[in-house]
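Structure, all two chains, one model.
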Amino acid sequence: MKLENEKILNMYENMLTIRKFEEKAQELFAAGDIPGFVHLYLGEEAVATGACANLNEDDYITSTHRGHGHIVSKGGDLKLMMAELYGKKTGYCKGKGGSMHIADATKGILGANGIVGAGHNIAAGAGLSIKYRKTDQVCVCFFGDGSTNQSTFHEALNLASIWKLPVVFVCENNGYGISLSQKFHQAIKDISDRAVSYNIPGVTVDGNDVFAVYEAVGEAVNRARKKQGPTLVECKTYRHRGHFEGDPVNYRSKEELEEWMEKDPIPRMEKYLLENDVVNEDKLKEISDKLDAEIEEAVKFAKESPFPDVEASVEDVYSDIVEEVK
Amino acid sequence: MSTIGIIANPASGKDIRRLVSHATVIDNNEKVNIVERIILGAQNFGVDKIYIMPDSYMMGYKVQDKLKLSEELNVEIEVLDMKIKASPKDTEKAAQMMEEKKLGCVVVLGGDGTNRLAAKYLKTVPLIGVSTGTNNAYPKMLEGTTVGIAAAVVASKGYDTNLSCRKDKIIEIYKNGEFIDICLMDAVISNEQYIGSKAIWDLDNIKKIIVSNCHPASIGFSAIVGVNKHINERDDYGAVLDLNSSENKFMAPVSAGKVVELSSGDLEIIQINQSISWEANFKGIIAADGEREIVFNIGDKFEFKITRSGPIHVDVRKTMEAAVAEGFFKIK
């Protein structure tokens, strides 16, 4: 799979945008600026980036409680995202959803989701819609290893396989379901093993290598567009932070974290860019400064935006299209 | 004391080739089952102790627990005391430890790539390669019970092992005058940009294939060269095929379920202990036994040398025949 330097650089910029957005969210949450919960995507940037680099604007994604990386990668607006984290009226959900519910139907972002495993069947539904409308769109469903113990995972894979739906199931296996190590809650190590049960292909790739993710999801997207059905792609990765900000993370060792920090996807990508003369150090600095400015602009926008009015708390609760609630 | 080792790669059989070909998925539970059958086969033929590589799926412990519970285990099992990296380094480290312990035989479950990693360190300990990977030319699809018996027979040293074991050919790779790596079966020069998902399958990017052995009944790069000429394990030569040329057109099974049209120049023989030189005029990657491994730049100079300094390869079928001749199966 040949990649132009421009595409490679775009992927790097996307990863770094996620990194900077999350580091800023971490800082603001610790300072008490951001209400509610945040679950940071730090360390997993290569998965969303590599997967979404294969998608068109009208393709769909479903996301999770750890969704900022997915939203950024599918073209989400940093200002609207940050405003939503702040609970401001200008945010993606008018400040009423917070970090875990960001959605943008205009970009095919069918929503982050606070319920573990809730995205699988939404993705299968999107896949059925694509099939029904006979378009060549695909839906990428992001989810974690823990959610593959939920019935929704099995229902969605089963239906997607039977109906040959254009869905790519991308598992971000970071080794923990909240604080529980995978080895204590799953009888398997590789989530891709579960694909066999549904008669679909399952592959495992290094989720901290953006090229590996790009290639595997790219082939899966090709299959989906050619009406060959769903695929399960497992990306082995690691979250640098706890399950949520404030998590004491007393369930994993310092040595484990250090080992994974050595596999941090961003320095790996920078090494590739420099060794292959895609960019030089000056260009990297230029990109970093540009993204810092964009993040600061998003924070300024969020801070200066108003909170929603009290009346807004009863708006957008029911859909207007349901007669009974009109 | 008669000892054998088992290295089972938990990562084999799950790579991207399941998407780009019709390759089989081998899940880890099936590998556990194969390991179990190897142990059950071996323990009835004089093996006192079996060493197993630790892995992230804990296959060694799983088998041990299961066979203890069912009261079928009558051999000592030791999972090697080594830190797991969940990377190819685990196979290398385990092979190194098994070589240092001078085990009687080592069984490697995986693909060409896993066997290559083990072969780097198994210099004097005989190796049985069992295929649980994809597009495999080196390891074979074998029944675990039979493999266990054969490993026990080899480890017993109770017969002339020359009857069923041979020193394998390999391809030694030198970059800018320095030895850097080996391949068991094939080295492929490609203009791929990055290592990424490791497996190599895009034939448009492949420039040259160097083989130590090749056969039309195999699959992948061995078959691409093998449909032009069969080179077996006993032949004191290897070959190189240039895919940049269109003189010779042919069909070959390049991966599971994929037969394609290809073209090449004439096949060139490389005699044992001889090498071919190649200087890179583009940036790219060399795939070792099917996996992207070695990055090169314009101007890098390579030598690919065919030698017989590979692992001691156990022919399971011949070993079982020798075992019959030596009375291994007789009850005294």
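The CA atoms of residues 45 and 328 of chain B lie 8 Å apart.
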